[in-house]
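agent> step 3/5: call structure_predict on target 'Type IV conjugative transfer system protein TraE' (Novosphingobium aquiterrae).
agent> reason: downstream docking stage needs a structural representation; sequence fetched in step 2, passing through unchanged.
tool.input:
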Amino acid sequence: MEIANSHAQSQRVLKQRNLFVAIAGVLAALTAILFLMVATRDREIVLQPILRSPLTVSSAGVSREYLEMVTRDAAVLTLDRSPSNLEYWMKSVLDITAPSAQGRLKADLLKIVNEQRGSSIAQFFAIQSMKLDPDNLTSDVTGDLHTIVGSKVISKDRRTFRFKWKYSGVSLQLVGFGMVSKAEEGDQ
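tool.output (status=ok):
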């Protein structure tokens, strides 16, 4: 009789163990499926910028509004400088630059800092228009570049600057920028 009770109890324990293994397998499969769904799903962040409406940033790609907002701020940041803010200016430009482009861009910025340090030359840029290309991650900004020596404006020239971007995850980073020549403007 005791053998029969022991056998029955062993069978119950065996059934419970098998049930727990089956439940653990189902939970592991469900966890793996949920993990894959989260890893492959586009992420979105809703920002409350100082633009006319809320802005959504998605890992699926750059929206035109987001590219416009970042380009506007980058144009002001990169093209407005004076001898009194050169270190801050260079650090701020490098902060928005992609790590892969920081070395080359820092060398270019250091040339400007060394040329302008100790002078009384400042410049600011007044944006007039923007041409955005979210597919190629470029943006062209046209406006008036004012150069000031001391307290006198010595030049006001209409210029176009091209900004090149890199987008990964939900982060837009500067890869390079520079003035567009008249020949390049005519090609477009």
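agent> step 4/5: record observation. Residues 80 and 124 are 4 Å apart (CA to CA).
agent> proceeding.
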